[in-house]
Amino acid sequence: MYDLASKCSVLLAKDFVHSAFTIILNEETRNSRSLYVEMNQTVITIYPRLKISKMYNFSFTEENCQVLDQSLENSTMNSRQGINKIEVSDQKGVSVSCDFQYDLCTVTLAGWHHGVSAGLFGTNDNEAGNEWMVPNGSLTDNVKEFTQSWQVNKCSLVQKKEKPCPITAKQNICKVFFEEPHSLLR
């Protein structure tokens, strides 16, 4: 777990072999972020703080943005939206889910995508030793170098002074996410 010291859009995960998916964390205005998810010529942009999503299909000649509960015809992407949750997936085993209540998004990849992706989420090949691979294939143990290497646009870096969290704060975060009776992650 690490903090992004960058105010840049960064590549979280991309299938570099089959180009089946791309997931980018975009920096928006006013310290807001959006999640750009591309699968099967369809893009969904999720704005967790606003609790909305927009969909765009490359097969159409013009942009067709709309809220997610109005699904696009001929789309090969499935989408479900609840009160505090949105999930998008495709038939090839890529799933992105955002829980707005906890401000938490997850990416799940089926075995078909084993070892073909890279980005800030690592290499997805069950090898701990190469999780911090940069785009040129070399490895780093420097958080700043790692996050900068996966930037997808030019932007300014915000220098953060890293101060370690006290043990009790880390334990409290884990308790809220995994032990509280009302947590969906319990």
UniProtKB/TrEMBL annotation:
Pfam families reported in the protein's UniProt record: VWD
All residue ranges annotated as the VWFD domain in the record: 1-166
Signal peptide positions (record): none
PANTHER family recorded: AGAP008810-PA, VITELLOGENIN DOMAIN-CONTAINING PROTEIN
Descriptive protein name: APLP protein
Encoding gene per record: Aplp_1
